[in-house]
Amino acid sequence: MNDTTAASPAEPAPLATPATDIPPASEPLPLTTRIVAIANQKGGVGKTTTVVNLAACLAELGQRVLVVDLDPQANATSGLGLGRQDGHSIYKALIDNGDAATMIQPSVVPGLDVIPSELDLAGSEIEIARSDDHLHRLQRALQPIRNSGQYQFILIDCPPSLGILTMNALTAADAILAPIQCEYYALEGLSVIHRLVAQLRDNGANPNLRIEGIVMTMYDARTKLGGEVVREVNRHFATHVYDTVIPRNVRLSEAPSYGKPVTLYDPLSAGTAAYRRLAEEFLKRLGMTRAPGTHVPRKLRRLPIFRITTISKQGD
Ligand SMILES: Nc1ncnc2c1ncn2[C@@H]1O[C@H](COP(=O)(O)OP(=O)(O)O)[C@@H](O)[C@H]1O
Ligand SMILES: [Mg+2]
Question: Is residue 29 assigned to a domain?
Answer without folding.
Answer: no
